[in-house]
Specification:
Residues 50-88 are annotated as: Disordered. By secondary structure, the protein is mostly beta strands. Helix content is 13%, strand content 41%. The protein folds into three domains: 6-101, no CATH class; 105-132, no CATH class; 135-374, Porin. The strands form three sheets. A twelve-stranded antiparallel barrel has the order 5-6-7-9-10-11-12-13-14-15-16-17. It starts with 5 loop residues before the first helix and ends with a strand.
Length: 375
């Protein structure tokens, strides 16, 4: 049982100890106080009558002899542990309700699982899920840049894009992906993430793409009268073969991005990422600077539209990258597009976009349609 606020627990015993003196001065108290009238819990040792005490060799007089005639005997202090426990009937109604509300719930296996997942064992899982909101911070697969905001501790997102079509370019073939991103809030400011292009089809091969390990951290946020900013950081490493089909093994790839968000006038949000990506194969390695951006505005409470673009690569390894054996020294990619997001309720959101490549090294088109679930 949680303790009541310290001030109420410290002041009441003092009032009880002063009660005999108050009785002697006024003579108006005509009954002995109950434990419920003085202390909310059974930790007090206040009972009727005060025994004689000794201090050194001197015996202190019985305080009952100091009370005026007709007054009730003063309260007594019993040694700790000897007093009877107060029951719910002994407590005031407000105190009884608070004691019942703060009582420790019995052990449950599900509670231990929720504690491991970052939620308190006493929390009701259905109540917790009803408070999850897919629009806060929002799905990262919806557009090219990733948000600087992270899930709350214990929050879970599952994002999936079964429609992911990419056209041909001078350095990559056409491709279809069923992408997925699993996000988990380790703390309020740190996410652990798993990403993959999932089920993938390229000319001559169909299978599963490698798994990428990703982490995102929210670093700082500030809001002034004339400027606001939220800053985060993200890093991922895409494995060569984990959970991948042999035909779709890929060279090791990793990236780092600085994530920034701004709220602009007229309800517009501006999101941009700046970083680099490393793409390699046994004969060649490329380090490419990357930049992703998006402007978004809510049309209704549930629907938002955005315009977006990227330079050289997406924030996640979604877009078919340069094949180093085929690419020039600097295979510049540029793309722009339009998209939208619809939050059906607090648990489900749909998103989609269509994008155009602006250079010969960029996929001619890029179409995505997906869903995000919040738990």
């Amino acid at each position: 049982m949680r303790r009541l606020p310290g001030s109420s627990r410290q002041c009441l015993p003092l009032a009880v100890l002063l009660l005999p003196a108050l009785q002697g001065c006024t003579g108006v108290v005509t009954h002995a106080p109950k434990i419920a009238d003085t202390l909310p819990l059974a930790e007090s040792r206040v009972k009727e009558g005060m025994p004689a005490k000794t201090m050194g060799s001197k015996e202190l007089p019985d305080s009952s002899t100091l009370a005026p005639t007709g007054s009730a005997p003063p309260a007594t202090l019993f040694p700790r542990g000897d007093e009877p426990d107060a029951t719910a009937s002994d407590l005031l109604p407000q105190q009884a309700a608070q004691a019942a509300a703060t009582d420790v719930s019995p052990w449950r296996p599900l509670g231990r699982l929720l504690k491991f997942m970052g939620r308190k064992p006493s929390e009701n899982v259905f109540l917790w899920r009803s408070n999850a909101d897919v629009s806060l911070p929002g799905p990262d697969l919806a557009n090219f840049p990733n948000s600087s905001y992270t899930l709350p501790r214990g929050g879970v997102y599952l994002e999936s894009s079964p429609v992911g079509f990419y056209g041909v370019s001078a350095i990559s073939s056409s491709q279809w992906n069923w992408e997925y991103l699993l996000r988990y809030g380790l703390t309020d400011n740190l996410e652990f993430r798993l990403f993959s292009n999932g089920l993938t089809a390229v000319p001559g091969a169909t299978g599963f793409s490698p798994l990428a390990f990703d982490t995102k951290a929210h670093l700082w946020a500030a809001d002034w009268d004339w400027f606001n900013v939220s800053v985060g950081a993200e890093a991922y490493i895409q494995t060569t073969s984990w959970l991948a089909s042999p035909a779709l093994y890929s060279p090791l790839q990793y990236a780092f991005n600085l994530l920034v968000d701004h709220d602009l006038p007229w309800g517009v949000s501006f999101e941009w990422n700046l970083g680099f990506v490393r793409q390699t194969n046994p004969t060649r390695t490329l380090y490419l600077p990357t930049f992703q951006w998006a402007f978004q505005r809510n049309i209704t409470d549930d629907i938002a539209l955005f315009v977006q673009g990227y330079h050289n690569a997406d924030a996640l390894p979604r877009v078919p990258g340069a094949r180093p054996s085929l690419a020039p020294s600097y295979p510049q990619q540029e793309a722009v597009g339009l998209g939208g997001q619809w939050s059906v309720n607090k648990q489900i959101a749909f998103f989609g976009s269509y994008n155009w490549g602006l250079t010969r090294f960029t996929p001619a088109y890029n179409a995505n349609l997906g869903v995000a679930l919040s738990f």
